[in-house]
Design brief:
24 strands; 12 helices; four-stranded mixed β-sheet
Length: 445
């Protein structure tokens, strides 16, 4: 695998301050969810998969190395342009599969690997070692996969022995695309028909991409959710994948435009999958001047250019059923809510506590340090907007979204806002500082 060039490293503390408006048009990095899947599916498939627009963040590079260790040929051809030559399945790797900080990567890879006669040990960095794994290993074990906990139970490192799977019907208790995807990937090589029932809809990138790789997946509406059915014994065939811009990454420059007076920023080529646009819907309800143009289809996904202009915002109560479509965007939503008039109520989002960090507690602590009125609850928090004093140095627990959200907050605050341990921004948004400064922001170490 050929490594990508890296941008300037971020070390120590990074500070954001605001003096001038932001203007310009940029492209968001490739969608993280689709980037993970395109590599993994390409590794499982027979033949060549050509990927354009791949996110070249640390999490995705860890998945690329893992796919290579499982027996595929992985090659970087240019910026965002990668080729995966799959052998029609995974084989036992000769190394530990180190997924770094990638929770999506490790869970989807375990699902994919479970269907093959192999043994593999999965591990990750200190943050990944704190994240629960039984939500995925439980249903995979019900299908016949075997797991040995090499350290603390429910955490990596763990060893998986795969093969000999049988299909199951699994009813999700939380809307999780990671759990659903792991089960469906295992189901490709399980005897019988695998069924996943979702009471609430989660991201459907796996279902869409499986079809692009030649699999038959049946999805039907059931109440407020979906019933997904997939027959075992199906083989994937390599294909071309165009990865659109990540809406979770596009959120940061768009958020800056909404809160910095005089700003107007366009992010081009953003994925508009209905299961990913909850944040944009919420901003519009808050009064955001947000417009979408040049709608089109790319890589099987709806795509468009999004323009955000400085707006006088008001607080809202975010519908709890919207959480699944924007669970990663609550940190940046709360930063924007700090500048809105009134209360923004965010509930039913306890899943935030088991992401790369406890994102509820960290956002509450950081916003409070910057002079924002915040109320923390077990399953959410409430932000009351007003003048943001800033002037704080915020702990990030090595969480990229916590770091970027507070840097955006600092662009409109009365005093600069600094974040510690910003190097993890590269896991999802390489070049974040350069992109923001190119729009007129002032972010520097």
């Amino acid at each position: 695998m050929t490594a990508r060039p890296v941008s300037a490293s971020l070390n120590g503390a990074v500070r954001a301050s605001g003096d001038k408006s932001l203007r310009g048009a940029v492209r968001a990095p490739g969608d993280k969810s689709m980037s993970h899947r395109s590599l993994i599916f390409g590794g499982m498939a027979k033949g060549v998969t050509e990927i354009e627009g791949l996110l070249e963040g640390d999490d995705i590079l860890a998945t690329a190395r893992a796919v290579e260790a499982f027996g595929a040929q992985v090659e970087r051809l240019g910026e965002g342009h990668w080729r995966v030559k799959g052998q029609g399945g995974f084989r036992s790797p000769g190394v530990v599969i180190d997924c770094g900080n990638a929770g999506t990567g490790v869970r989807l890879l375990m699902g994919a690997a479970a269907g093959y006669e192999l043994s593999a040990t999965f591990d990750g960095d200190a943050s990944l070692r704190k994240r629960p794994m039984k939500r995925v290993t439980g249903p995979l074990a019900d299908m016949g996969a075997r797991f040995d906990w090499n350290g603390a139970e429910d955490r990596v490192p763990l060893t998986l022995d795969g093969g000999g799977l049988k299909a199951i019907e699994y009813v999700q208790t939380v809307a999780s695309a990671q759990i659903k995807s792991a089960i469906l990937l295992a189901g490709l090589n399980a005897a019988g028909e695998t069924v996943v029932v979702e009471p609430e809809k989660s991201r459907d990138h796996t279902e869409r991409m499986l079809r692009a790789f030649g699999a038959m997946v049946d999805v039907t509406e059931e109440g407020e959710g979906w019933r997904i059915r997939l027959k075992g014994g199906q083989k994937l065939t390599g294909t071309a994948v165009a990865v659109p811009g990540d809406p979770s990454s596009a959120a940061f420059p768009l958020a800056a435009a909404l809160i910095v007076p005089g700003s107007e920023v366009t992010v081009e080529g953003v994925m508009l999958n209905p299961q990913r646009t909850g944040l944009f819907d919420t901003w519009i309800e808050m009064g955001a001047d947000l417009t979408i143009s040049k709608r089109r289809v790319s890589g099987g996904e709806d795509v468009g250019d999004i323009t955000a202009r400085y707006s006088e915002l008001k607080g809202v109560t975010v519908p709890q059923e919207r959480a699944a479509s924007m669970i990663d965007e609550y940190p940046i939503l709360s930063a924007v809510a700090a500048y809105a008039q009134g209360r923004t109520v965010m509930r039913g989002i306890g899943e935030m506590r088991v992401k790369e960090s406890d994102r509820i507690s960290l956002m509450v602590a950081g916003l409070t340090a910057c002079g924002v009125a915040v109320e923390e609850e077990a399953e959410g928090f409430i932000v009351t907007g007003g003048p943001v004093g800033g002037g704080a140095t915020v702990a990030t627990a090595h969480d990229h979204r916590i770091a970027m959200s507070h840097l955006i907050l600092g662009l409109a605050a009365e005093a600069p806002v600094s974040v510690l341990d910003p190097e993890m921004i590269a896991t999802s948004f390489p070049g974040f500082v350069e992109l923001m400064n190119g729009l007129g922001a002032e972010i520097a170490s």
